[in-house]
Write a structure and sequence with these properties.
single chain, 15% strand, 191 residues, 9 helices, three-stranded antiparallel sheet, alpha+beta
């Protein structure tokens, strides 16, 4: 997300606003607890099922890596402060509520829109193969959708309004950006 903010700082004029909606977890939540991690587990089981049906090559499945990082409000605040390119004008928590009747299809369509090209490039999926994956994913999500109604689910959508400040973006910071700092929480980086 740091690289994202630094890149947007080059594109947005001083005083300009940026609106962001991102999946998030409560501060100090383990990634194994919230529903987004569980949704990826369901996706993994679907890909394994397609491998059994010889639609997915097992070697490609074994080499598939879909990194996912879900941030917390505290981490976003620390990141925005560290990059100094933006100020937070608004940070709101939007509850993720899906009706059981259509929630699985909504989530499956979100997964498709976010990952379609990744699946096509890595697995060589045709549109029909992708349709099979998304249909299977939607079917398998029906039972796990109850995770959204359980009190231990700590996931939500975070709505951010960021205002571009007048600080100059440090080009060296953009060039020295590394993936480790992106995938590690700010607290872990300090340790």
């Amino acid at each position: 997300m740091e690289a994202f903010l630094l890149d947007r700082a080059h594109e947005i004029v001083c005083g300009g606003l940026m609106f962001i909606l991102v999946p998030a977890i409560a501060d100090e939540t383990l990634l194994s607890k919230p529903s987004p991690g569980l949704l990826l587990d369901v996706l993994e089981s679907c890909l394994m099922e397609l491998a059994k049906m010889d639609i997915v090559d097992e070697a490609k499945l074994d080499s598939f890596n879909m990194p996912s990082y879900i941030t917390s409000p505290e981490q976003v605040e620390e990141l925005v402060e560290r990059t100094r390119c933006f100020t937070i004008e608004r940070l709101e928590r939007l509850e993720t509520l899906f009706p059981l009747s259509s929630g699985a299809k909504i989530l499956a369509n979100h997964m498709r829109s976010a990952s379609e090209e990744i699946f096509k490039q890595h697995f060589g999926f045709s549109d029909d193969d992708l349709d099979k994956l998304i249909e299977l994913y939607s079917e398998r999500l029906v039972d796990p959708l109850s995770i959204f109604t359980k009190s231990e689910d700590k996931s939500f959508q975070m709505f951010l309004v960021l205002k571009r400040n007048s600080d100059i973006v440090d080009e060296a910071k953009v060039d020295s950006f590394n993936l480790t700092s992106y995938l590690t929480s700010p607290k872990q980086v300090k340790e």
